[in-house]
Amino acid sequence: MILVTGATGVSGSLIIREFARQNAQVRALVRSRAKARAIETFPTVEIVEGNMLRPETLGAALDNVDRVLMISSAAERMLETQSTFIDAAKKAGVRHIIKFSGKGSGIGYNTKLFRTVRLHEEIERYLEGSGLAWTHLRPSQFMQFYFPGAPAMNLTTNTLSLPMENARLSPVAIEDVAKVAFALLHSEGHEGKSYDMTGPEALTMAEIAEQISQATGRTIEYVNITLEEYRRALLAAGAPPERADAFVELWSDRRGGNSESRVDLGTHEIFGVHPTTFAEFARWNAAVFCGESMPS
Ligand SMILES: NC(=O)c1ccc[n+]([C@@H]2O[C@H](COP(=O)([O-])OP(=O)(O)OC[C@H]3O[C@@H](n4cnc5c(N)ncnc54)[C@H](OP(=O)(O)O)[C@@H]3O)[C@@H](O)[C@H]2O)c1
């Protein structure tokens, strides 16, 4: 049995959709069934409730599980959540954990790195030392980040406001990552390996705004804001101060040209996955970018 955690989240729910698309059995760990409406109708998906921070709740989820794709939120006690889960999985007899990590992890502990990437690195090391078979999947920024939402894409002002100056990023479509995750969970030979993923183009924010404009027929303008303005906008949108600080670190790192700015399609090639371009992604999701429908 394969278990996917974080199945109600942005990436987890699209990975569960990939299982449904392939008509493949999967168990989905959710904290609350009420949040799982979008995935509970798929016939090959078994929903099980449990909390990764509370091993005593994970018995049914881990029963007879051979492989896990481990995802949890970046915001919420990620190190503790995933280390606790690794221990519980090992005790329950799981053989192999594929850690859903982040691009930049694995390049060496560096205090200048975005704190979430540092946590991913710590979890990767914990998993590697656990005695379980491991694989790290490290996507760059998701293309889904550019969907309307505070504080970046604003459909009232038709602006994309980010502190990126003219620096470039190569975001990846989660759908591509989901195809790779599916393949990793259904084939052999990936133990002890790490797979970095980006999208196929390194784009400036002005180019991303232009591609969204072309797909939607609305003119979206890129507005280069300062890091402090970005922080204030996050706080105004309700982000806790620590989260706002973390994002300032992230964008400061990104605009300095971090590893997410360089295209790396090696993993797409290994798994035979077509790299979705931002233009394709924007076209397929034009209604979401216009605020006319919700992301799937
Ligand atoms: N955003 C990006 O551009 C990006 C790029 C590369 C990598 N990543 C990494 O990808 C990972 C997932 O990101 P995401 O955006 O998909 O996250 P997300 O939307 O916040 O989803 C997180 C999922 O984890 C679940 N979860 C959290 N704590 C849990 C616990 N204690 N027990 C059980 N389930 C728990 C959440 O359940 P509830 O629904 O109950 O909250 C939710 O289903 C993160 O580690 C992030 O660092 C993100």
Supply database-style keywords:
globular; alpha/beta; 296 residues; Rossmann fold; seven-stranded parallel beta sheet; single chain; 13 strands; binds NADP nicotinamide-adenine-dinucleotide phosphate
What would you say this structure looks like, in words?
The protein is α/β, with parallel strands linked by helices and 296 residues long. The protein has a domain at 2-140 and 173-198 and 262-275: NAD(P)-binding Rossmann-like Domain (Rossmann fold, 3-Layer(aba) Sandwich). Helices cover 39% and strands 18% of the residues. It contains 12 helices and 13 strands. It has helices at residues 10-21, 37-40, 59-62, 78-92, 115-128, 174-185, 205-216, 227-236, 241-255, 266-271, 278-284, 286-289; strands at residues 2-4, 26-30, 45-49, 67-70, 96-100, 103-106, 133-139, 153-154, 159-162, 168-169, 193-197, 203-204, 221-224. The longest helix is centred in the N-terminal third of the chain and has 15 residues, at 78-92. The chain is globular, with a radius of gyration of 19 Å. Residues 5-12, 29, 31-32, 35, 51-53, 71-74, 76, 81, 100, 102, 116, 139, 141-142, 145 line the site of NADP nicotinamide-adenine-dinucleotide phosphate. It comes from Ktedonobacter racemifer DSM 44963. It holds the Pfam family NmrA. Residues 2-281 form the NmrA-like domain.
As a percent range, the share of helical residues equals: 25-40%
Q: What's the total count of β strands?
A: 13
Overall pLDDT confidence: 95
Bound molecules: NADP nicotinamide-adenine-dinucleotide phosphate
What would you call the shape? globular
Number of helical segments with 4 or more residues: 12
Radius of gyration: 19 Å
Q: Give the CATH H-level superfamily of one domain.
A: NAD(P)-binding Rossmann-like Domain
InterPro entries: Ergot_Alk_Oxidoreductase, NAD(P)-bd_dom_sf, NmrA-like
Protein name: NmrA family protein
